[in-house]
Amino acid sequence: MAQSTADRIERKRGIGGLAKQANPAFAVGAVAVPLIAFAGAVASGNIRALTYVHVMAGVLWTGIDLFMGLVLGPVLGGQEPEARADFFASFTPKMTFLMPSLATVTISGGILLALRLGKFPNADPWLAILTAATLLPVVLLIGYQFDALTDPKTLGVLGVAVVGSGAYLAATLPAFAMTSWWIVATLGIVTLLSVQGFGVILPGEVRIYRQVVSENPDVDLVSEIGMRNARLGGLQGLLQLAIVFVMVGLRWWTP
């Protein structure tokens, strides 16, 4: 992981430095293409277009996660920490841009499809529960990973999340009613995927980047976080396979 001081200084420019390390064209495309495709499908009002974007994003998300967990993890597990750290130093910045955009489009597209197809009755209270069950753990996990649970910024973000989620729940829970059990199962899996992805994997990727641009990168820490993320990626892939089964049930086994 040897690098010049000039390289480290150049790479310390926040999101711009991370994008440069990932390759600027890749970083822009990884975020813009899925989001633009999703926005276009939503704006068109075409269910087939929305289904296509949702499925394609989901296939890519699932495939990459399974590859990381079932292929990449075991291969890298046999390497020395230095070799693993070198790989993750190059690989992680790309995943930092690609995977959150795929996850966002897949989840948002799935929820919107369920609503438009009439498969998600009594949606508002359940979406409020999903928001609180995802947002609050993610904020806490991010604070924990950066040893910043008591930092004023973390507490401020947590306060906003608590107030916002609480207001959403207060506005919708009076109308609470049971929805489809397929939807309940879907929301449970989506919550696990979101908390794991945005609360553990993504902050881990940022921690790897911060080590890479530091004066004295901790090779063992980079290797440890990278391998943890690869294993969690495999678990994410398995959860996504489970949600495929649930989606089939929702689409074909509900009225």
TrEMBL record:
The chain crosses the membrane at residues 21-43, 49-76, 97-117, 123-143, 155-176, 182-202, 237-254. Keywords: Membrane, Transmembrane, Transmembrane helix. This is DUF2269 family protein. It comes from Haloarcula hispanica (strain ATCC 33960 / DSM 4426 / JCM 8911 / NBRC 102182 / NCIMB 2187 / VKM B-1755).
